[in-house]
């Protein structure tokens, strides 16, 4: 099973009744049993401040009230199934490669913790870790594992209002990973996905259907030059590690003004495409939701 089909596998029928994507500016959500029409509820400035190192929920009651306003608690107290998509920058993402990887979950956890201990600015021993073992690439002996690490107190604060409102959170993921299911589909063997959410840029490198690299960077100036300075070393990595340049670049959550898309295409030698979805226009704060809805089909 490929990495991209893994998401589809996890959200197969019956899907959760609700899907929520959280961001500093608001909550994107959809009821999967009522047409899967994306909805939006804004949050006041200062309710959330996304960070991998500090508490993200600054105004607890306002955050809880927003969730209650979207889907009031059932009178019969029956738990409703929901999926939760968290902001990119609240967690650390990465792809690790191993010569061998154990079969037992406890042994896998110990090995993953050992490998990420020096690479993450988190207390790895107490962090919530999740991982997915990707199938081996043809003619490769390496085992590649997608990992996500989040401080437990950060995860708990995001989950609390949903649990208080009577939701069972059966699936929790990060927006950049869910957004990989967005169109347009491409025949490119290697590609880059650039996803911007406000001041945060998530960059993913895909080789076939495998995720080769994922980075999440807080932008200081949030302009083209800063994005370019992140993109060029990524292409150098692809040339060195994959012996290939990107055959397509997909941008998500922002538009390239004027002739910038054409200029990028000419300079990089690859088409620059805007992410798309059957359920709406992917923007800075709903791309994970729309990608999740795409994976349901």
What does this structure look like?
This protein is α/β, with parallel strands linked by helices and 297 residues long. The protein has three domains: 3-88 and 152-176, 2-Layer Sandwich (Nucleotidyltransferase, domain 5), CATH 3.30.420; 93-125 and 132-146; 184-277, ATPase, nucleotide binding domain (Nucleotidyltransferase, domain 5, 2-Layer Sandwich), CATH 3.30.420.40. It has eight helices and 13 strands. The strands form three sheets. Strands 3-2-1-4-8 form a five-stranded mixed β-sheet, with helices on both faces. The two termini are 17 Å apart. 37% of the residues are buried. Mean pLDDT is 89; it is low at 1-12.
- Backbone shape: globular
What is the CATH first-level class name of the largest domain?
Alpha Beta
CATH topology of the largest domain: Nucleotidyltransferase, domain 5
Going across the major beta sheet, what is the strand order?
3-2-1-4-8
Number of helices: 8
Domains, number: 3
Radius of gyration: 19 Å
Query: How far is the N terminus from the C terminus?
Result: 17 Å
> Would you tell me the overall average pLDDT?
89
Q: How many strand units?
A: 13
Q: Helicity range of the residues?
A: 25-40%
């Amino acid at each position: 099973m490929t990495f991209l089909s893994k998401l589809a596998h996890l959200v197969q029928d019956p899907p959760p009744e609700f899907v929520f994507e959280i961001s500093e500016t608001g909550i994107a959500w959809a009821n999967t049993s009522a047409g899967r029409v994306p909805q939006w509820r804004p949050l006041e400035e200062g309710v959330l401040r996304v960070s991998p190192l500090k508490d993200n929920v600054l105004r607890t009651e306002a955050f809880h009230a927003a969730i209650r306003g979207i889907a009031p608690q059932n009178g019969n107290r029956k738990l409703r199934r929901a999926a939760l998509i968290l902001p990119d920058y609240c967690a650390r993402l990465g792809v690790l490669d191993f010569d061998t990887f154990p079969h037992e979950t406890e042994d896998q956890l110990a090995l993953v913790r050992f490998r990420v201990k020096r690479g993450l600015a988190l207390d790895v021993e107490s962090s919530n870790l999740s991982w997915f073992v990707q199938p081996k690439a043809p003619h490769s002996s390496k085992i590649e594992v997608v990992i996500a690490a989040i401080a437990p107190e950060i995860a708990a604060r995001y989950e609390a209002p949903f649990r208080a409102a009577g939701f069972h959170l059966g699936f929790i993921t990060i927006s950049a990973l869910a957004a990989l299911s967005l169109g347009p589909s491409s025949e490119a063997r290697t590609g880059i996905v650039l996803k911007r959410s406000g001041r945060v840029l998530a960059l993913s490198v895909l080789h076939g259907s495998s995720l080769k690299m994922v980075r999440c960077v807080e932008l200081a100036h949030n302009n083209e030059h800063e994005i370019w300075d992140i993109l060029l070393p990524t292409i150098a990595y692809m040339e060195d590690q994959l012996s290939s340049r990107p055959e397509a670049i997909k941008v998500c959550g922002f538009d390239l003004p004027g002739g910038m898309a054409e200029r990028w295409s000419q300079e990089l030698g690859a088409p620059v495409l805007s992410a798309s979805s059957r359920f709406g226009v992917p923007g800075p704060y709903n791309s994970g939701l729309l990608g999740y809805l795409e994976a349901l089909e």
